[in-house]
């Protein structure tokens, strides 16, 4: 499974992009997205999804 970013809640702060160990998060036309093919929910790197942990808005980075 992968994570996704709820666009309507994203503030485009950019905190999630550099923290992703798989470089699955990218910016396109002023919004951040998660490439589901690259996202591993940080498995093998961390105990929890780092995008969700650093996001300042609760429930913006969620399981897809």
Folded structure, characterized:
Keywords: 4Fe-4S, Electron transport, Iron, Iron-sulfur, Metal-binding, Transport. Pfam families: Fer4 (PF00037). Residues 1-30 form the 4Fe-4S ferredoxin-type domain. This is Ferredoxin. InterPro entries: 4Fe4S_Fe-S-bd (IPR017896), 4Fe4S_Fe_S_CS (IPR017900). With 64 residues, the chain is of the alpha+beta class. It has one domain (3-63): Alpha-Beta Plaits (2-Layer Sandwich), CATH 3.30.70.20. The protein contains two helices and four strands, in the order βαββαβ. The protein has helices spanning 16-19, 50-54; strands at 3-5, 25-28, 31-34, 61-63. The N and C termini lie close together (7 Å). The mean pLDDT is 98.
Task: Draw up the topology in text.
Blueprint: E1 3-5, H1 16-19, E2 25-28, E3 31-34, H2 50-54, E4 61-63
Antiparallel strand pairs: 1-4, 2-3
């Amino acid at each position: 499974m992968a994570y996704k970013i709820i666009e309507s809640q994203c503030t485009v702060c950019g905190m999630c992009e550099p923290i992703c160990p798989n470089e699955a998060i990218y910016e396109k036309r002023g919004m951040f997205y998660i490439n589901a093919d690259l996202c591993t929910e940080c498995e093998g790197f961390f105990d929890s999804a780092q995008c969700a942990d650093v996001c300042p808005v609760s429930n913006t980075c969620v399981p897809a």
